[in-house]
């Protein structure tokens, strides 16, 4: 995969920071997978819950730029929002991301737009309530990608049970990074 030199420099810097601990960013392998998935599925409206310093956001923004999608990301810690903005600016990707510096749980209660692609990476015990808030806004065929489903499988038991058993979803587990559950919304 070829990545713009400017973006790769920011990605590599964040990978070094992540190795020092305390950041909880996705792995590069996960980033590459998300990017390829977006190029393949071509969503029109994308959402991320939990941007942190923007490592995953950079991969998603590259995908959004490529397919021309609108992309919203939520992050509610002010210091992280500051880093997120700075990293997106350094990578020249800021114009492809609509940063919502607020609590996703609050904002999803009054969400209006239809969504085709969701990356869940906030608090693990909130994935299920967040998905339920989003459900009325999901387009048929929308993809919901949940991170940490292997590393945090106990906290995510209720979420995983729901997307595996509810007929509105078709789900599969990918052993990539800390584990991704990919669920297609069948409507
Ligand atoms: C695991 S980190 C995200 C890592 C990032 N996705 C990456 O891979 O580079 C989780 C982030 O979600 C944020 N977060 C958790 N719950 C949130 C909420 N309800 N609304 C907005 N941000 C939230 C936290 O502040 C934290 O920065």
Structural class: alpha/beta
Integer count of domains: 1
Strand order, main sheet: write it out. 3-2-1-4-5-7-6
> Under the CATH scheme, which class?
Alpha Beta
CATH topology tier name = Rossmann fold
Shape: globular
Hetero compounds: S-adenosylmethionine
**Number of discrete helical segments:** 7
Largest sheet: 7 strands, mixed
Radius of gyration, whole Å: 15 Å
Terminal-residue CA separation: 33 Å
Number of strands: 7
Note the run of SSEs as H and E. Answer: HHEHEHEHEHEHEE
Describe, in plain words, how this protein is organized in 3D.
The structure is a single chain. This protein is an alpha/beta fold. It has a single domain, classed as Vaccinia Virus protein VP39 (Rossmann fold, 3-Layer(aba) Sandwich), CATH 3.40.50.150. It is 41% helix and 22% strand. The protein contains seven helices and seven strands, in the order H-H-E-H-E-H-E-H-E-H-E-H-E-E. It has a seven-stranded mixed sheet, with helices on both faces. Strand 4, helix 6 and strand 5 form a beta-alpha-beta unit. Helix 2 packs parallel to helix 3. It is globular, with a radius of gyration of 15 Å. S-adenosylmethionine binds next to helix 3 and helix 5.
Secondary-structure blueprint:
Layout: H1 5-19, H2 28-41, E1 45-49, H3 55-67, E2 70-74, H4 78-90, E3 98-100, H5 104-108, E4 115-120, H6 127-134, E5 138-147, H7 157-165, E6 169-174, E7 180-185
Parallel strand pairs: 1-2, 1-4, 2-3, 4-5
Antiparallel strand pairs: 5-7, 6-7
Helix pairs in contact: 2-3
The structure holds S-adenosylmethionine.
């Amino acid at each position: 995969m070829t990545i713009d030199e400017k973006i790769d420099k920011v990605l590599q810097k964040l990978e070094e920071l992540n190795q020092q601990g305390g950041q909880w960013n996705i792995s590069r392998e996960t980033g590459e997978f998300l990017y390829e998935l977006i190029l393949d599925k071509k969503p029109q409206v994308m959402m991320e819950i939990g941007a942190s310093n923007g490592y995953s956001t950079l991969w998603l923004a590259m995908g959004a730029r490529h397919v021309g999608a609108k992309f919203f990301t939520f992050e509610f810690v002010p210091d992280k929002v500051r880093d997120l903005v700075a990293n997106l600016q350094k990578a020249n990707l800021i114009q492809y991301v609509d940063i919502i510096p607020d609590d996703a749980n609050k904002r999803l209660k009054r969400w209006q737009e239809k969504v085709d692609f969701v990356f869940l990476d906030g608090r693990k015990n909130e994935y299920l309530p967040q998905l339920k808030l989003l459900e009325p806004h999901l387009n048929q065929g929308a993809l919901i990608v949940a991170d940490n489903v292997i590393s945090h499988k106990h906290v995510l038991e209720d979420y995983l049970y729901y997307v595996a058993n509810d007929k509105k979803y078709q789900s599969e587990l990918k052993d990539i990074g800390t584990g991704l559950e990919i669920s297609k919304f069948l409507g």
